[in-house]
Amino acid sequence: MSWPAFWKKRNWQSRLLWPLSQLVCWEASRRLKQFEVAKSPQSKKAKQTVIVVGNVVVGGSGKTPFILWLVERFKRQGISVGILSRGYGANNAHWPKLVCAQTSVMEVGDEPYMLAKQTGCPVAVSPRRAEALALLNERYDCDVVISDDGLQHYGLARDIEIVLIDAERGFGNGWCLPAGPLREPMQRIAKVDFTVWNGLDENQAIPELDVEQKNAYAMQLQPIGFRQVGNPQKRLSIKEFVAQYPEVIAIAGIGNPQRFFNSLERLGLTVEAKAFADHYAYQKQDFDQLLGSGSKSLKQDLSALTVKPLLMTEKDAVKCQTFAQDESHWWYLQIAPHCSDELFNQILNQVNA
């Protein structure tokens, strides 16, 4: 989600909300302490290693691409992986649910659908992740289970906690909701097993914080090409795409839309940007309105279609494929997450332990 300005810098608005943020901090700390003391008696201890990949701020931080990277590394070691998700934005009255070939993205949400599609791993979805884990264990025998988000979901026992941090936005003004973007106090960082900074260059040092960071590493999201939304087999390299389409209309319904728009500009594209809410459920009319309005409309004439195509993220694309088969000018950016071998080896050591 896009952050309001007062989440980025402390001003009169954030200060006005500061008393409420203190209540949020207190409640988050209380719940964490209760979990640590009671060892979450309401949750059933899993028979395999459970890894929670989450964040401490509202909005996207790169959890999904990190999970894709982590799953791939586990698979190379012959380790079977299952994935849990809350299914945010899903339209489903019955939980838990497994993602299968017949499942629609609207039933389970965009992130579980994409994770199942890209990894080939079993994915179980439920707002109560312990229920999703139980269903996963009924059908599969996984060595490792990864929970997509859920750092603050204490109904699920866990063995390893990994926090993703957006290197561009960081922690904003450092205050809890509603005065700032934090879901819980910064001290939570000192209690997790790993911190991963999304967006740092390989030669950049890990930023220092006022709290301890255990096992801090960087992740880069490397653009590798563009694929047609309705026909993903159709692919253009970065160089080919930029040469053919120097100006684009770009949309993003992700946690930090500006990160996507900035990445396109760094590739050399001129971007006309439109941000949607995170997990936005796209309809065909959204694009009819977007592409059919304004003096630079894609629908003015045929030549315009070749000049300014529509670009989106892969997370957006999975929700648009059902009505994009005939749209040869709709593309998504394919990325490849990259982290160090040392990070994976450290995680693997904890799994084996």
Give a nutshell description of this structure:
Transfers the gamma-phosphate of ATP to the 4'-position of a tetraacyldisaccharide 1-phosphate intermediate (termed DS-1-P) to form tetraacyldisaccharide 1,4'-bis-phosphate (lipid IVA). The chain has 353 residues and is of the alpha/beta class. Helix content is 33%, strand content 21%.
What is the mean pLDDT? 90
Helicity, as a percent range: 25-40%
Ranges where pLDDT stays below 50 over 5 or more residues in a row are: 293-306
What can be said about the biggest beta sheet? 13 strands, mixed
Beta-strand residue fraction? 15-25%
Radius of gyration (Å): 21 Å
Describe the protein's architecture and organization:
It catalyses: a lipid A disaccharide + ATP = a lipid IVA + ADP + H(+). It is a single chain. The model is unreliable at 293-306 (pLDDT under 50). This protein has 12 helices and 13 strands. The protein has 2 domains: 5-220 and 338-352, Rossmann fold (3-Layer(aba) Sandwich); 222-335, Rossmann fold (3-Layer(aba) Sandwich), CATH 3.40.50. It is an alpha/beta fold. It is globular and about 60 Å long.
List the helices and strands and how they pair.
Elements (H helix, E strand, L loop, with lengths): L4 H4 L3 H27 L10 E6 L8 H14 L4 E5 L11 E2 L6 H4 L1 H10 L3 E3 L3 H11 L4 E5 L11 E7 L27 E5 L17 E13 L6 E2 L1 H7 L2 E6 L4 H10 L3 E6 L8 H8 L10 H6 L2 E4 H4 L12 E10 L1 H12 L1
Parallel strand pairs: 1-5, 1-6, 2-4, 2-5, 6-7, 7-8, 10-11, 10-12, 12-13
Antiparallel strand pairs: 3-4, 8-9, 8-13
